[in-house]
């Protein structure tokens, strides 16, 4: 049996096998947890084997999309989607103050509520 001596070929084929293994379920599922607080909510996202820098957060109107793509080191144009989740945000979320941070290898998307949300307010009835 003749061994393959082209190291570049071996390196590329090893990456392709790793990518196919990943797409075939070789990595654990992405974990998403939403915690609600009085002043807002936080979406926690973590995935074993996925670099937190590969996550993207996109806000379009009241629709928040979180996704990650596994990119090839040798060919950055080649990628495979690893995670995609879309959330419809409720009207009490202040869209202008949403922020995403990485902490301890985990992505956190913080969704602050508008000031005064959740507090009852009496509406004055005007006489016409």
TrEMBL record:
CDD domains: ACD_sHsps-like. It comes from the Bacteria. It holds the Pfam family HSP20. Residues 22-128 form the SHSP domain. PROSITE patterns: SHSP (PS01031). Gene3D superfamilies: 2.60.40.790. InterPro entries: A-crystallin/Hsp20_dom, HSP20-like_chaperone. Belongs to the small heat shock protein (HSP20) family. This is SHSP domain-containing protein. It comes from Pontibacter actiniarum.
């Amino acid at each position: 049996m003749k061994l393959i001596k082209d190291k570049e070929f071996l390196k590329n084929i090893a990456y392709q096998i790793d990518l196919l293994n990943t797409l075939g379920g070789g990595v654990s599922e992405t974990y998403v947890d939403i915690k609600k607080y009085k002043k807002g909510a936080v979406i926690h996202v973590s995935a074993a084997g996925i670099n937190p820098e590969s996550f993207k957060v996109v806000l379009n109107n009241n629709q928040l999309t979180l996704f990650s793509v596994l990119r090839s080191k040798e060919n950055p144009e080649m990628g495979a989607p690893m995670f995609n989740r879309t959330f419809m945000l409720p009207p009490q979320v202040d869209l202008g103050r949403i922020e995403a941070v990485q902490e301890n290898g985990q992505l956190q998307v913080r969704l602050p509520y508008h000031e005064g949300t959740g507090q009852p307010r009496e509406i004055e009835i005007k006489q016409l």
